[in-house]
Amino acid sequence: MAIPIKNAEAIRRMREACAIAAEILAKLKEQARPGVTTYDLDQIGRDLIASYGARSAPYGYRHGSGRPFPAYTCLSVNEEVVHGIGSLKRILRDGDIIALDVTVEYNGYIGDNAITVPIGHIAPRVAELLKVTERALYIGIEQAQVGNRIGDISHAIQVYVEAHGFGIVREMVGHGVGQSMHEEPQIPNFGRKGTGEKIKPGMTLAIEPMVNLGVHQVRTLSDGWTIVTADGKPSAHFEHTVLTTDSGPEILTVPRAAS
Ligand code: MF3
Ligand code: CO
Ligand code: CO
Question: Where are the domains of the chain?
Fold first, then answer.
């Protein structure tokens, strides 16, 4: 299977879906504060998605014969890496971090983006984890140039993250995104320069480093979804959907200017 190339109409719709995903993420971020449960946050996410006439792509999603994903957004606290499920038992407290991952379908196309935010005051090394993970995303995006290969993105992210002594997660990867949430290619956050598929104009790629404060290994909880760090230390996640063009990568998951 080849990597889908989006035509002008597909790109127009990707822009819309991605802008909506970004606006919802920005609004959700404002609600992440001490005392809020992750269940409440997911309900806020559900309502925001509905208010845009969009659909949650994760809700009901399944891989293989597994259980369908039961929430509208992915909310991952502290040692949770990705695919956290909002829970009434998980109350945000000062010193926590939470990854908010919003993926929506609008008019047949999907936008995917994530940020990790501090709750109140966080430890200095955790603050560094957030900074390095966000910077790793932009370093990866910078490599999404026509003529480069996917491995150039992977390699740049890995080198930067490991230079700071953090663990880059290997089990989950970035991906193409469009009419499906997960399209070709896979975009690992580790790898070798000059390997993988060649980047052409019109690809829409979700680049998403997941970075652990400690070891890079992860495991899956018994809910079948939540990925947590093997050592229980915190993890961070940032993600954008990017369009490749002859004049360089363009980040699509940005809010439209308020009118
Ligand atoms: N937003 C996730 C990603 O970045 C996908 C959600 S996984 C799901 O690829 F299973 F929860 F849907
Ligand atoms: Co995502
Ligand atoms: Co993604």
Answer: 8-258
Please report which ligand is nearest the Cα atom of 57. Answer: 1
3-class SS of residue 66:
coil
Pick from 105, 97, 50, 93: which is nearest to 75 by CA?
97
Q: Which of 46, 115, 181 to mutate to test ligand 1, by most ligand atoms within 8 A of the CB atom?
A: 181
The four Cα atoms 47, 236, 214, 206 give a dihedral, to 10 degrees, of: 110
CB distance 232 to 215 below 8 Å:
no
Tell me the residue type at 22.
A
Q: What's the pLDDT tens digit per position in 188-213?
A: 999 999 999 999 999 999 999 999 99
Residue nearest to atom 4 of ligand 1 (CA): 112
Contacts of 42 (CB under 8 A, 6+ apart): 71, 72, 73, 75, 85, 86
CB atoms within 10 A of CB 36: 17
pTM of the model as a whole: 0.98
Q: How is domain 8-258 classified at the architecture level of CATH?
A: Alpha-Beta Complex (3.90)
From 164, 154, 236, 218, select the one nearest 189 (Cα to Cα): 154
Closest alpha carbon to 215 in 197, 202, 228: 228
The pLDDT value given to residue 64: 85
Rg (CA), the chain: 17
Q: d(Cα 106, Cα 91) in Å, to the nearest integer?
A: 31
